[in-house]
Amino acid sequence: MTDTTTSREGWLPEGTPLDGEHVRGYIAKQNRPRIAAGADVYTLACERMAYVMDTHDRVAVAFSGGKDSTAVLNIALEVANREPHLRRHLPLRVVFFDEEAIPQETEEYVRRVSQRDDVALEWYCLPVQHRNACSRRYPYWWPWAPEDEAKWCRPMPPEALTTLPGFPLWPPEERLTIPNTNGLLAPPPHTTAMLMGIRAQESLIRAHAVRVRSVDNYIVKYDLASQGKQAAAFNGGNLWKAYPIYDWRTEDVWAAVRVHGWDYNRAYDLMEMAGIGPSSQRCSPAFGEEPLQKIHVYAQCFPDVWARMAERVPGIGAAYRYARTELYGYGKKPPKPEGVTWPDFITHYLSKHGGKAQAKIAERIRDVIARHYRKTTHPILPTAPHPVTGLSWRFLLTLAMRGDFKERRQESNQLMHADKATLWRNYAAELEQILTAGTGQELGHPRPLPADPYALIPSEIKESDMRE
Protein backbone atom coordinates (compact mmCIF):
# COMPACT_ATOMS: atom_id res chain seq x y z
CA MET A 1 0.00 0.00 0.00
CA THR A 2 1.26 3.47 -0.85
CA ASP A 3 2.00 5.65 2.18
CA THR A 4 0.07 8.93 2.49
CA THR A 5 0.67 12.16 4.35
CA THR A 6 -0.43 12.91 7.87
CA SER A 7 -0.17 16.18 9.77
CA ARG A 8 3.44 17.44 10.05
CA GLU A 9 4.41 15.86 6.79
CA GLY A 10 1.75 18.18 5.55
CA TRP A 11 3.38 20.43 3.04
CA LEU A 12 1.29 18.13 0.79
CA PRO A 13 -2.51 18.06 0.99
CA GLU A 14 -3.93 15.51 3.42
CA GLY A 15 -4.06 12.04 1.85
CA THR A 16 -1.60 12.71 -0.98
CA PRO A 17 0.35 9.51 -1.77
CA LEU A 18 4.03 9.81 -0.88
CA ASP A 19 5.36 8.16 -4.01
CA GLY A 20 7.65 10.14 -6.31
CA GLU A 21 5.11 10.69 -9.09
CA HIS A 22 2.50 12.33 -6.87
CA VAL A 23 5.03 14.42 -4.94
CA ARG A 24 6.70 15.73 -8.11
CA GLY A 25 3.32 16.47 -9.64
CA TYR A 26 2.19 18.52 -6.69
CA ILE A 27 5.44 20.49 -6.53
CA ALA A 28 5.25 21.25 -10.27
CA LYS A 29 1.81 22.80 -9.79
CA GLN A 30 2.90 24.97 -6.85
CA ASN A 31 6.25 26.30 -8.04
CA ARG A 32 7.99 27.55 -11.12
CA PRO A 33 10.34 25.05 -12.80
CA ARG A 34 13.79 24.65 -11.30
CA ILE A 35 17.06 24.57 -13.13
CA ALA A 36 18.53 21.07 -13.10
CA ALA A 37 21.70 20.97 -11.00
CA GLY A 38 22.62 17.31 -11.31
CA ALA A 39 21.96 16.58 -7.64
CA ASP A 40 19.19 16.93 -5.07
CA VAL A 41 19.10 20.00 -2.82
CA TYR A 42 20.13 18.05 0.28
CA THR A 43 23.29 16.74 -1.38
CA LEU A 44 24.16 20.21 -2.67
CA ALA A 45 23.60 21.75 0.76
CA CYS A 46 25.94 19.18 2.33
CA GLU A 47 28.59 19.97 -0.28
CA ARG A 48 28.29 23.70 0.39
CA MET A 49 28.42 23.13 4.14
CA ALA A 50 31.60 21.06 3.84
CA TYR A 51 33.21 23.78 1.71
CA VAL A 52 32.33 26.53 4.19
CA MET A 53 33.61 24.50 7.13
CA ASP A 54 36.81 23.66 5.30
CA THR A 55 37.59 27.24 4.23
CA HIS A 56 36.80 29.12 7.46
CA ASP A 57 38.57 28.96 10.80
CA ARG A 58 35.32 28.91 12.71
CA VAL A 59 31.62 28.48 11.97
CA ALA A 60 28.47 29.21 13.96
CA VAL A 61 24.84 28.41 13.21
CA ALA A 62 22.55 31.43 13.48
CA PHE A 63 19.68 29.53 15.10
CA SER A 64 16.16 30.89 15.59
CA GLY A 65 14.29 27.70 16.38
CA GLY A 66 12.50 28.01 13.03
CA LYS A 67 12.33 25.44 10.27
CA ASP A 68 15.05 26.94 8.06
CA SER A 69 17.69 27.23 10.77
CA THR A 70 16.68 23.71 11.83
CA ALA A 71 17.70 22.46 8.38
CA VAL A 72 21.01 24.36 8.52
CA LEU A 73 21.74 23.03 12.02
CA ASN A 74 21.14 19.42 11.10
CA ILE A 75 23.10 19.61 7.85
CA ALA A 76 26.04 21.18 9.70
CA LEU A 77 25.97 18.42 12.32
CA GLU A 78 25.71 15.73 9.66
CA VAL A 79 28.72 17.07 7.74
CA ALA A 80 30.87 17.76 10.81
CA ASN A 81 30.23 14.31 12.27
CA ARG A 82 30.75 12.56 8.94
CA GLU A 83 33.97 14.23 7.76
CA PRO A 84 36.98 13.52 10.05
CA HIS A 85 38.85 16.70 9.08
CA LEU A 86 35.78 18.82 9.93
CA ARG A 87 35.28 17.44 13.43
CA ARG A 88 37.35 20.35 14.65
CA HIS A 89 34.08 22.29 14.54
CA LEU A 90 32.49 20.00 17.14
CA PRO A 91 30.79 20.63 19.44
CA LEU A 92 29.09 22.89 16.92
CA ARG A 93 28.71 26.51 17.95
CA VAL A 94 25.03 27.49 17.80
CA VAL A 95 23.96 31.09 18.50
CA PHE A 96 20.37 31.73 19.56
CA PHE A 97 19.05 35.26 20.09
CA ASP A 98 15.94 34.82 22.23
CA GLU A 99 13.46 37.45 21.04
CA GLU A 100 11.25 37.16 24.15
CA ALA A 101 7.85 37.39 22.40
CA ILE A 102 8.05 33.84 21.01
CA PRO A 103 6.02 30.65 21.61
CA GLN A 104 6.85 28.47 24.59
CA GLU A 105 7.28 25.62 22.11
CA THR A 106 10.25 27.48 20.63
CA GLU A 107 11.94 27.72 24.03
CA GLU A 108 11.36 24.00 24.63
CA TYR A 109 12.81 23.10 21.24
CA VAL A 110 15.89 25.29 21.70
CA ARG A 111 16.44 23.66 25.10
CA ARG A 112 16.36 20.21 23.51
CA VAL A 113 18.94 21.32 20.97
CA SER A 114 21.15 22.76 23.72
CA GLN A 115 21.25 19.37 25.45
CA ARG A 116 22.88 17.61 22.51
CA ASP A 117 26.45 16.50 23.11
CA ASP A 118 27.59 17.75 19.69
CA VAL A 119 26.14 21.25 20.19
CA ALA A 120 27.56 24.20 22.14
CA LEU A 121 24.59 26.59 22.27
CA GLU A 122 24.88 30.24 23.32
CA TRP A 123 21.48 31.48 24.49
CA TYR A 124 21.50 35.29 24.35
CA CYS A 125 18.77 37.32 26.01
CA LEU A 126 19.94 40.81 25.07
CA PRO A 127 17.89 43.97 24.47
CA VAL A 128 18.68 44.06 20.76
CA GLN A 129 16.89 46.66 18.66
CA HIS A 130 13.72 45.33 17.00
CA ARG A 131 11.16 46.97 14.75
CA ASN A 132 7.78 47.85 16.27
CA ALA A 133 5.45 48.39 13.32
CA CYS A 134 2.47 48.59 15.68
CA SER A 135 3.18 52.25 16.38
CA ARG A 136 4.39 55.11 14.21
CA ARG A 137 5.46 57.11 17.25
CA TYR A 138 7.43 54.28 18.86
CA PRO A 139 9.07 52.43 15.93
CA TYR A 140 11.40 50.21 18.01
CA TRP A 141 11.26 47.84 20.95
CA TRP A 142 13.93 45.89 22.84
CA PRO A 143 13.31 42.29 24.03
CA TRP A 144 14.52 41.63 27.57
CA ALA A 145 15.04 45.36 28.11
CA PRO A 146 15.80 45.75 31.83
CA GLU A 147 13.61 48.85 32.05
CA ASP A 148 10.62 46.78 30.82
CA GLU A 149 11.07 43.72 33.04
CA ALA A 150 7.51 43.98 34.35
CA LYS A 151 6.24 43.62 30.76
CA TRP A 152 8.38 40.66 29.66
CA CYS A 153 6.36 38.06 27.76
CA ARG A 154 8.18 35.11 29.36
CA PRO A 155 10.36 34.50 32.40
CA MET A 156 14.08 34.78 31.72
CA PRO A 157 15.35 31.29 30.72
CA PRO A 158 17.90 29.81 33.14
CA GLU A 159 20.37 29.35 30.25
CA ALA A 160 20.27 33.06 29.34
CA LEU A 161 23.42 35.07 28.61
CA THR A 162 22.47 38.66 29.43
CA THR A 163 25.73 40.43 28.63
CA LEU A 164 28.13 40.43 25.70
CA PRO A 165 31.43 42.35 25.57
CA GLY A 166 30.95 45.39 23.37
CA PHE A 167 27.13 45.36 23.46
CA PRO A 168 25.85 48.74 24.74
CA LEU A 169 22.95 48.52 27.20
CA TRP A 170 22.45 52.26 27.68
CA PRO A 171 21.01 54.37 26.26
CA PRO A 172 18.41 52.19 24.48
CA GLU A 173 18.91 54.10 21.21
CA GLU A 174 22.51 52.82 21.03
CA ARG A 175 21.60 49.14 21.34
CA LEU A 176 22.55 47.05 18.34
CA THR A 177 20.38 45.04 15.98
CA ILE A 178 20.90 41.28 15.78
CA PRO A 179 22.87 41.47 12.48
CA ASN A 180 25.25 44.01 14.00
CA THR A 181 25.52 42.09 17.25
CA ASN A 182 26.78 39.15 15.20
CA GLY A 183 29.93 41.18 14.61
CA LEU A 184 30.76 40.94 18.32
CA LEU A 185 30.73 37.15 18.04
CA ALA A 186 33.54 37.00 15.49
CA PRO A 187 36.65 38.82 16.75
CA PRO A 188 39.82 38.79 14.62
CA PRO A 189 42.08 37.27 13.51
CA HIS A 190 39.95 34.19 12.80
CA THR A 191 37.63 33.97 9.80
CA THR A 192 34.14 33.14 10.95
CA ALA A 193 31.16 32.02 8.86
CA MET A 194 27.65 32.50 10.22
CA LEU A 195 25.55 29.65 8.80
CA MET A 196 22.12 31.09 8.08
CA GLY A 197 18.80 29.67 6.91
CA ILE A 198 18.24 32.29 4.19
CA ARG A 199 16.23 30.93 1.24
CA ALA A 200 15.68 32.66 -2.10
CA GLN A 201 12.04 31.57 -2.15
CA GLU A 202 11.27 33.84 0.80
CA SER A 203 11.61 37.15 -1.08
CA LEU A 204 13.18 38.84 -4.07
CA ILE A 205 15.63 40.57 -1.73
CA ARG A 206 16.90 37.21 -0.53
CA ALA A 207 17.00 35.85 -4.06
CA HIS A 208 19.04 38.85 -5.15
CA ALA A 209 21.52 38.20 -2.33
CA VAL A 210 22.73 35.10 -4.15
CA ARG A 211 21.77 35.82 -7.77
CA VAL A 212 24.31 38.59 -8.34
CA ARG A 213 27.31 36.41 -7.54
CA SER A 214 28.66 33.81 -9.94
CA VAL A 215 31.27 32.11 -7.70
CA ASP A 216 30.50 30.87 -4.19
CA ASN A 217 27.27 32.84 -4.47
CA TYR A 218 25.99 31.51 -1.16
CA ILE A 219 28.91 33.06 0.80
CA VAL A 220 28.59 36.79 1.47
CA LYS A 221 30.99 39.03 3.39
CA TYR A 222 29.42 41.30 5.98
CA ASP A 223 29.22 44.79 4.47
CA LEU A 224 30.51 47.12 7.17
CA ALA A 225 29.96 50.21 5.03
CA SER A 226 26.19 49.66 5.18
CA GLN A 227 26.09 49.47 8.97
CA GLY A 228 26.53 53.20 9.63
CA LYS A 229 27.63 54.12 13.12
CA GLN A 230 26.94 50.57 14.30
CA ALA A 231 29.84 49.31 12.19
CA ALA A 232 32.06 49.91 15.22
CA ALA A 233 30.50 46.80 16.74
CA PHE A 234 32.43 44.63 14.31
CA ASN A 235 35.79 45.49 15.89
CA GLY A 236 37.56 44.59 12.66
CA GLY A 237 36.20 41.04 12.72
CA ASN A 238 36.50 38.87 9.63
CA LEU A 239 32.87 37.78 9.37
CA TRP A 240 31.03 36.07 6.53
CA LYS A 241 27.46 34.90 5.99
CA ALA A 242 26.81 31.51 4.38
CA TYR A 243 23.44 30.39 2.94
CA PRO A 244 23.81 26.62 2.35
CA ILE A 245 20.07 26.04 1.75
CA TYR A 246 19.43 29.15 -0.34
CA ASP A 247 17.82 27.13 -3.18
CA TRP A 248 15.50 25.08 -0.94
CA ARG A 249 11.76 25.51 -0.96
CA THR A 250 9.41 25.12 1.99
CA GLU A 251 8.49 21.60 0.93
CA ASP A 252 12.18 20.66 0.80
CA VAL A 253 12.61 21.65 4.43
CA TRP A 254 9.69 19.59 5.67
CA ALA A 255 10.59 16.66 3.44
CA ALA A 256 14.06 16.65 5.01
CA VAL A 257 12.55 16.73 8.50
CA ARG A 258 10.45 13.68 7.68
CA VAL A 259 13.05 11.69 5.75
CA HIS A 260 15.88 12.24 8.25
CA GLY A 261 13.77 12.17 11.40
CA TRP A 262 14.96 15.56 12.63
CA ASP A 263 13.58 17.13 15.77
CA TYR A 264 11.71 20.38 15.11
CA ASN A 265 9.73 23.16 16.76
CA ARG A 266 6.27 21.87 17.73
CA ALA A 267 4.85 25.39 17.32
CA TYR A 268 4.52 24.49 13.64
CA ASP A 269 2.14 21.67 14.52
CA LEU A 270 -0.15 24.09 16.36
CA MET A 271 -0.17 26.48 13.42
CA GLU A 272 -0.90 23.67 11.00
CA MET A 273 -3.81 22.44 13.10
CA ALA A 274 -5.14 26.01 13.04
CA GLY A 275 -5.24 25.84 9.24
CA ILE A 276 -2.26 28.10 8.58
CA GLY A 277 -0.41 27.04 5.42
CA PRO A 278 3.28 26.03 5.58
CA SER A 279 4.47 29.12 3.70
CA SER A 280 2.72 31.41 6.22
CA GLN A 281 3.95 29.77 9.41
CA ARG A 282 6.29 31.98 11.46
CA CYS A 283 7.68 31.64 14.99
CA SER A 284 9.34 35.07 15.21
CA PRO A 285 7.83 38.03 17.10
CA ALA A 286 4.76 39.47 15.42
CA PHE A 287 5.59 43.15 15.84
CA GLY A 288 7.47 43.75 12.56
CA GLU A 289 5.96 45.08 9.33
CA GLU A 290 5.53 41.74 7.57
CA PRO A 291 4.79 39.54 10.65
CA LEU A 292 2.16 42.05 11.74
CA GLN A 293 -0.21 40.62 9.13
CA LYS A 294 -0.18 37.32 11.06
CA ILE A 295 -0.55 38.79 14.54
CA HIS A 296 -3.86 36.95 15.01
CA VAL A 297 -1.95 33.66 14.76
CA TYR A 298 -0.38 34.29 18.16
CA ALA A 299 -3.75 34.93 19.78
CA GLN A 300 -5.14 31.77 18.19
CA CYS A 301 -2.22 29.36 18.59
CA PHE A 302 -0.16 30.64 21.53
CA PRO A 303 -2.63 32.17 24.02
CA ASP A 304 -0.23 32.11 27.00
CA VAL A 305 2.46 34.24 25.40
CA TRP A 306 -0.18 36.33 23.60
CA ALA A 307 -1.65 37.38 26.94
CA ARG A 308 1.66 39.11 27.67
CA MET A 309 2.30 40.25 24.10
CA ALA A 310 -0.99 42.14 24.17
CA GLU A 311 0.61 44.63 26.59
CA ARG A 312 4.24 44.46 25.48
CA VAL A 313 4.68 47.26 22.90
CA PRO A 314 2.88 50.54 22.18
CA GLY A 315 0.14 50.19 19.61
CA ILE A 316 -0.35 46.45 19.93
CA GLY A 317 -4.10 46.73 20.60
CA ALA A 318 -4.74 48.78 17.48
CA ALA A 319 -2.47 46.53 15.42
CA TYR A 320 -4.38 43.42 16.49
CA ARG A 321 -7.65 44.97 15.29
CA TYR A 322 -6.48 46.87 12.21
CA ALA A 323 -3.14 45.40 11.07
CA ARG A 324 -4.59 44.23 7.75
CA THR A 325 -6.41 47.47 6.97
CA GLU A 326 -5.40 50.73 5.31
CA LEU A 327 -4.50 52.11 8.78
CA TYR A 328 -1.31 50.04 8.52
CA GLY A 329 -0.88 50.36 4.78
CA TYR A 330 -2.64 47.14 3.72
CA GLY A 331 -5.64 46.63 1.47
CA LYS A 332 -7.08 49.68 -0.27
CA LYS A 333 -5.04 52.86 -0.09
CA PRO A 334 -6.72 56.09 1.05
CA PRO A 335 -7.75 58.25 -1.89
CA LYS A 336 -5.72 61.38 -2.54
CA PRO A 337 -7.82 64.54 -2.16
CA GLU A 338 -8.34 66.51 -5.37
CA GLY A 339 -5.96 69.41 -5.81
CA VAL A 340 -3.33 67.92 -3.50
CA THR A 341 -0.07 66.94 -5.16
CA TRP A 342 1.29 63.46 -4.70
CA PRO A 343 4.47 64.68 -2.97
CA ASP A 344 2.33 66.58 -0.45
CA PHE A 345 0.09 63.53 0.07
CA ILE A 346 3.16 61.41 0.78
CA THR A 347 4.51 64.06 3.16
CA HIS A 348 1.21 64.01 5.06
CA TYR A 349 1.63 60.31 5.89
CA LEU A 350 5.33 60.71 6.62
CA SER A 351 4.45 63.28 9.27
CA LYS A 352 2.58 60.60 11.23
CA HIS A 353 5.87 58.86 12.09
CA GLY A 354 8.23 59.81 14.92
CA GLY A 355 11.37 61.86 14.28
CA LYS A 356 14.10 59.26 13.58
CA ALA A 357 11.67 56.88 11.88
CA GLN A 358 10.31 59.72 9.75
CA ALA A 359 13.81 60.69 8.62
CA LYS A 360 14.68 57.10 7.74
CA ILE A 361 11.51 56.57 5.70
CA ALA A 362 11.90 59.93 3.95
CA GLU A 363 15.46 59.03 2.97
CA ARG A 364 14.27 55.71 1.58
CA ILE A 365 11.58 57.41 -0.51
CA ARG A 366 14.07 59.96 -1.85
CA ASP A 367 16.44 57.13 -2.81
CA VAL A 368 13.69 55.24 -4.64
CA ILE A 369 12.61 58.34 -6.57
CA ALA A 370 16.22 59.16 -7.46
CA ARG A 371 16.71 55.59 -8.69
CA HIS A 372 13.66 56.00 -10.96
CA TYR A 373 14.98 59.21 -12.53
CA ARG A 374 18.42 57.71 -13.09
CA LYS A 375 16.76 55.18 -15.37
CA THR A 376 14.12 57.29 -17.09
CA THR A 377 12.79 60.84 -17.50
CA HIS A 378 9.18 59.63 -17.56
CA PRO A 379 6.78 60.78 -14.81
CA ILE A 380 5.76 58.66 -11.83
CA LEU A 381 2.04 57.90 -12.16
CA PRO A 382 -0.54 57.31 -9.40
CA THR A 383 -1.19 53.59 -9.93
CA ALA A 384 0.45 52.23 -13.09
CA PRO A 385 4.00 51.03 -12.33
CA HIS A 386 6.57 52.38 -14.74
CA PRO A 387 7.51 49.48 -17.07
CA VAL A 388 11.24 50.02 -16.49
CA THR A 389 11.45 50.88 -12.78
CA GLY A 390 8.17 49.54 -11.39
CA LEU A 391 7.62 52.77 -9.46
CA SER A 392 4.25 54.42 -8.83
CA TRP A 393 2.95 56.90 -6.28
CA ARG A 394 0.84 54.12 -4.78
CA PHE A 395 4.02 52.18 -4.03
CA LEU A 396 5.58 55.26 -2.42
CA LEU A 397 2.40 55.76 -0.37
CA THR A 398 2.81 52.23 1.00
CA LEU A 399 6.36 53.05 2.09
CA ALA A 400 5.19 56.28 3.72
CA MET A 401 2.40 54.54 5.62
CA ARG A 402 4.17 51.33 6.69
CA GLY A 403 7.84 52.25 6.84
CA ASP A 404 9.32 49.02 5.45
CA PHE A 405 12.49 49.49 7.51
CA LYS A 406 14.01 46.21 6.30
CA GLU A 407 13.41 47.18 2.66
CA ARG A 408 11.58 43.99 1.83
CA ARG A 409 9.31 45.84 -0.59
CA GLN A 410 11.03 46.84 -3.82
CA GLU A 411 9.51 48.80 -6.68
CA SER A 412 10.85 46.24 -9.16
CA ASN A 413 8.52 43.65 -7.61
CA GLN A 414 5.63 45.45 -9.29
CA LEU A 415 6.86 44.20 -12.68
CA MET A 416 6.55 40.50 -11.88
CA HIS A 417 2.97 39.76 -12.82
CA ALA A 418 2.53 41.30 -16.26
CA ASP A 419 4.38 41.25 -19.56
CA LYS A 420 6.16 44.33 -20.88
CA ALA A 421 3.55 45.12 -23.49
CA THR A 422 0.75 45.17 -20.92
CA LEU A 423 2.80 47.33 -18.56
CA TRP A 424 3.51 49.88 -21.29
CA ARG A 425 -0.12 49.99 -22.47
CA ASN A 426 -1.37 50.52 -18.91
CA TYR A 427 1.20 53.22 -18.26
CA ALA A 428 0.37 55.12 -21.46
CA ALA A 429 -3.37 54.81 -20.88
CA GLU A 430 -3.16 56.24 -17.34
CA LEU A 431 -0.93 59.10 -18.47
CA GLU A 432 -3.40 59.89 -21.26
CA GLN A 433 -6.24 60.08 -18.72
CA ILE A 434 -4.22 62.48 -16.58
CA LEU A 435 -3.45 64.73 -19.55
CA THR A 436 -7.10 64.73 -20.61
CA ALA A 437 -8.25 65.62 -17.07
CA GLY A 438 -5.63 68.36 -16.76
CA THR A 439 -4.35 67.07 -13.42
CA GLY A 440 -0.74 66.51 -14.47
CA GLN A 441 0.56 69.12 -12.02
CA GLU A 442 -0.43 66.80 -9.16
CA LEU A 443 2.27 64.33 -10.21
CA GLY A 444 5.03 66.65 -9.05
CA HIS A 445 7.05 65.80 -12.15
CA PRO A 446 10.13 68.07 -12.51
CA ARG A 447 9.81 68.35 -16.31
CA PRO A 448 7.00 69.08 -18.79
CA LEU A 449 4.82 66.02 -19.28
CA PRO A 450 5.09 64.15 -22.61
CA ALA A 451 2.50 65.38 -25.10
CA ASP A 452 1.90 61.91 -26.60
CA PRO A 453 1.91 59.13 -23.96
CA TYR A 454 1.87 56.39 -26.59
CA ALA A 455 5.07 57.74 -28.13
CA LEU A 456 6.84 56.55 -24.97
CA ILE A 457 6.18 52.90 -25.80
CA PRO A 458 9.34 51.25 -27.18
CA SER A 459 9.27 50.46 -30.89
CA GLU A 460 9.70 46.70 -30.34
CA ILE A 461 6.51 46.68 -28.22
CA LYS A 462 4.59 48.57 -30.93
CA GLU A 463 5.88 46.22 -33.63
CA SER A 464 4.83 43.22 -31.55
CA ASP A 465 1.33 44.69 -31.16
CA MET A 466 1.08 45.21 -34.90
CA ARG A 467 2.06 41.60 -35.60
CA GLU A 468 -0.62 40.40 -33.22
Automatic annotation (TrEMBL):
Family matches, as SUPFAM superfamilies: Adenine nucleotide alpha hydrolases-like (SSF52402)
Membrane spanning residue stretches: none
Keyword Chaperone assigned: no
Alphabetic keyword roster: Transferase
Domain of life: Bacteria
Record domain Phosphoadenosine phosphosulphate reductase: where: 59-269
Keyword set includes Transferase: yes
Protein name per UniProt: Putative phosphoadenosine phosphosulfate sulfurtransferase
Taxonomic source organism: Thermomonospora cellulosilytica
